[in-house]
Every structure is written in C-alpha cells, then in structure tokens.
Amino acid sequence: MLIDVHTHIVPEKMPDFSRRAGGDRWPVMDPVDSCSARVMISGKNFRTVTDQCWSVPRRLDDMEHEGVGRQVLSPMPRLFSYWAQPDEGRDFCRYVNETIVEMMHAAPDRFYGLGIVPVQHPELAAKELAEVKKLGLQGIEIGTNIDGHSLGDPRFLPFFQEAEKQGLPIFVHAQDPTDAGRFSGAPLLNNLIGFPQENVLAAATLITGGVIERCPNLRVLFSHGGGGFAMMLPRLDQGWHTMEQFLPKLPSDYIGNFYFDTLLYDSAAVRYLIEKFGPSRITVGSDYPFAIREVPPGLHLKSATGLSDADRERIHHRTALEFLGLAEG
C-alpha cells in the first residue's frame, strides 16, 4: 500500500467572513463551472482549483488510477491566514478542519487528516490542539514561518510543547518566503526556489531555536524533501565543531524525529535523501492535486536505485504511519 502524505484540500464553499476583521482578505470561492473555482483573496484570483480539492469521488478515482492506497489530507497553505485576529482565525481554522473531517468520514479507509490552528496566536493555537484531536484529525499542518517569524522564535514554544504533549505530529509546509523580494525576473521563483529555501530555514531554526531540545518527542515532517536541508546539515555540524557550540549537542543529534517527503522530482535527489536520513524517515508525498505535483506519487522513488523491497515498503507506508502515530492495519 502507498500512503501519500502530501495532498491538499480546499473547501468547495467558504464561510462568509466579509463583515469580520480582515474583510476581503478572507478566501472566497468563485465558481468557474461545475468542476472548478477561483480562490479569491483580496479581490484577486490566488489560484484556480479543480473539484479534486473537495470532491471525495474524484479523489478516490484518481487514487485508484495512480496506485495510492491512502491520502493524508491537509489544507492548501494559503488558507493558514496567519494575519488573522484570534477569534476569526480560530473560527476559520475550525471550519477548514471540519471540512477535512467530513471528507475523512466519507471514505474512512482511504483518508487521514491534518488540521490547522491560528499559530500566530500561540496560546490560543495550543488550546485548539485539543479540539483538533477531538475531531479525529491525526495531526497539524503549519507554515515554514508564521507571518514572517521563525519557527524557532521562543513565542511558539508553548504551541510546540502542547503538540508534543498531545502526541500530534506536525507537517511543515513551505509558504510565504521571507526573502521573496530577491526573486526577480520570474514571479514563480517565489514558489520554485523560495519554498525549498523556506524548508531549510524551518528545519534549521527548530534545531537552533532550541525547540527540539525542549520537545525531544515532537514528530515533524518537512515538505519538498526538506529543500536542501540534507546538504546544509553537515555545514551546521562543522560550524558547531569549529566556530561555536551554539547547542548542547551537535545539530545532527536533534533530527531523530524529523521526517521528509520524497517530493524532489529527481531519483538521484531522492536516493541521497534516503542515504542521508534512512528509509525510516522518508515517506511519499506528491502535492496532489496542484499542477506541480508528481504523477504518479512516488514516481522518482520508483527509479531510485539500490533500495531493497523492505526499504520501499517502509517508505511507501510504514514511515507515514509512524509519523502519524498509527499502528499498521
């Protein structure tokens, strides 16, 4: 069985928050036809999406054709809305989470779910984790930065501590690169280059900010193969050895509960990721249903050389179940 840990949903309808703080910054669905809609934010089309984002039958059909046994559903990252005020942010996150739960209930043997909480208000977000767990969601998705603030910022430590206490794993998805102003000549570089860089910064600052030191049992999965983190980690270790011991232990000693998806679009890159971290830390992710997704999921894992059948089985589903804290069966 293959589990795809990196798939996104967008609700077919959004709550009417137009009279709340934020006004037209809240996403609105503008139907194009029976199978697609524009996600309107601040009066502009952020992205045109298909009914793959909300239609359970459409997803199940795609999964059947692409050899996917289960998907882990998580919101499209733009829905994080980290600019929102506390009450509005909480209510919007709850609506999105309930949408995911409805999809899970429609096909309970095919979907797991990750919710969102208003992480920009860490104490409120920490309280909302109990609600997420009560809904039956398996974990949380967060951005690589929270409205421009590093994940290693001390303000977010209570949130991470509560996630660890609740046993809820965290999927870190790239969003809103903090150095986007440097990408010139091609607007898509914000996504194509900025997103992988964001994953490196997120992974590094969770270590250097002391979050993993304080939350040693927190399970964290990074999108897009962690960007270039696998290649940057030796440099962090070398700096610790030769320049400053900025942590009680080597940076690489803190990655025991880090996980990475295979979404690197290259078999050699996927193979390096596996060599660096081992198959017990690698799991399949595709970015379904967006245009940049890998089709079928695990395409470049399939052509990666030197893997045993046991390694492939672990990467196909066992690692995902371990990250989610679920028993096999």
What does this structure look like?
The structure is a single chain. This protein has 329 residues and is of the alpha/beta class. The protein contains 11 helices and 13 strands. The protein has helices at 56-66, 86-106, 122-135, 157-166, 189-192, 194-208, 211-214, 229-242, 267-277, 299-302, 309-324; strands spanning 3-9, 28-33, 36-41, 44-50, 70-75, 111-115, 139-143, 145-146, 149-150, 170-173, 220-222, 258-261, 282-283. The strands form 3 sheets. It has an 8-stranded parallel sheet with strand order 1-5-6-7-10-11-12-13, with helices on both faces. The chain has a 3-stranded antiparallel sheet with strand order 2-3-4, with no helix packed on it. It has a two-stranded antiparallel sheet with strand order 8-9. Helix 6 (194-208) runs parallel beside helix 8 (229-242). The longest helix is centred in the N-terminal third of the chain and has 21 residues, at 86-106. It is globular, with a radius of gyration of 19 Å.
Annotate the secondary structure layout:
Layout: E1 3-9, E2 28-33, E3 36-41, E4 44-50, H1 56-66, E5 70-75, H2 86-106, E6 111-115, H3 122-135, E7 139-143, E8 145-146, E9 149-150, H4 157-166, E10 170-173, H5 189-192, H6 194-208, H7 211-214, E11 220-222, H8 229-242, E12 258-261, H9 267-277, E13 282-283, H10 299-302, H11 309-324
Parallel strand pairs: 1-5, 5-6, 6-7, 7-10, 10-11, 11-12, 12-13
Antiparallel strand pairs: 2-3, 3-4, 8-9
